[in-house]
Known about the structure:
The protein is α/β, with parallel strands linked by helices.
Amino acid sequence: LFSDVWRRVVWQNPELDYAQRHPSNNTAARIHQEGREAGVDAQLAALAKDHGLIFFFRSDCPYCHAMAPTVRMLAQKYGIEVLGVSIDGVGLPDFPSPRDGRAHAAAWGVERVPALFIGSRKTGERAPVGFGVMSFTEIANRLFVLTGTKPGENF
């Protein structure tokens, strides 16, 4: 009985209907996804104006080698500057001339690589985006959520 009453309430009160914010119908889901992708693209293009990414890696880390081309691709698509930071002083094919980041890694608390941070060129503030291998879509989504939404919004 409760379930039946609740679904009727939801049908008649769209503000209570989760599907209004996150549609499950194929057509609506596609439209929603296209809108979200446009929002992500706009947010990341805007971020590129005064933010950059800091990519911590180690030359003998296979996960770092796997993620480096993805970070480079993201930088090229959105025009975001990426600072490659090696914690062993040696570069990767996609980041052949990195900064020596041994001291930075310790100061920033980077204990695992690959690690990706976002930083403001204006204020110097920085925040982790994530650790471990992430796909292009995952990085873009995290950047969008961390910089373009409030907690609980778009969840």
